[in-house]
Amino acid sequence: DQQVKQNSPSLSVQEGRISILNCDYTNSMFDYFLWYKKYPAEGPTFLISISSIKDKNEDGRFTVFLNKSAKHLSLHIVPSQPGDSAVYFCAAINQGGSEKLVFGKGTKLTVNP
Amino acid sequence: DVKVTQSSRYLVKRTGEKVFLECVQDMDHENMFWYRQDPGLGLRLIYFSYDVKMKEKGDIPEGYSVSREKKERFSLILESASTNQTSMYLCASRSGLRVYGYTFGSGTRLTVV
User: Fold this and answer.
1) What is the DSSP string of A12-61?
2) Considering only CB atoms, which chain B residues are within 8 Å of A103?
3) What integer pLDDT is reported at residue B108 of this predicted model?
């Protein structure tokens, strides 16, 4: 039972364009969401997060949008750069419940020069 | 910055060997986690620990055990390595004080031959 789903295993965009990575969740108890970025042969690093009381959080080129009614969040990267090429993991947690993050399977983003 | 150090970046072991993967964190974090990452399967939780000498099974504990004798160290043990345990292993730690980002180590790429 996959509670956090990233339905696109891969995404390819041109440098300078927008990258949109999507994530869906099924557990309505999740109230905090995070995105991690992972380069090959390295551990994931935290990128950006959002609480369920918000619908948008922005940090430089990265913006996360949350649609609670649709149980959907997305990560926008504008403009995309070749250095953004990595695997992006969506994760969620129920702050009042389990201590564990639940991860999606990841989306591999390739930004072409 | 929190540092999570995994003792080996690459390991090659033979089938049937007992394998120890070590993880050390330097920020007095209560919670520590072991994941494995496989293509198309994302990050899967093997075991986690809330405190010294405490451990709980994650989603895929079969074939693994863990040890947490000191707060800073969390070891993953493959009792009898098998080829299907060839994977990238990632350790993470997190403060128990409701700070929801995990800090990951750089990973250990284990190959069982």
Assistant:
1) EEETTS-EEEEEEE--TT--EEEEEEE-TTS--EEEEEEETT-SEEEETT
2) 42-43
3) 95
Residue A39: closest C-alpha in chain B: B106
- For the cut 70, the answer to whether the pLDDT of residue A55 exceeds it is yes
pLDDT of residue B2: 62
Task: State the nearest Cα–Cα gap between A6 and chain B, in angstroms.
Answer: 10
Residues lower than pLDDT 50 in chain B: none
Is the separation of the CB atoms in B57 and B76 below 8 Å?
Answer: no
Between A57 and B98, name the one with better pLDDT: A57
Q: How confident is the model at residue A42 (pLDDT cuts 50, 70, 90)?
A: confident
Please work out, in degrees rounded to the nearest 5, the angle formed at the alpha carbon of residue B23 by the alpha carbons of B19 and B25.
170
Of A41, A45, A89, the CB nearest to B43: A89
Which sign does the torsion angle of CA B102, B108, B109, B113 carry?
negative
Residues 6+ apart with CB under 8 A from A14: A80, A111, A112
Please give the pLDDT value at position B27: 84
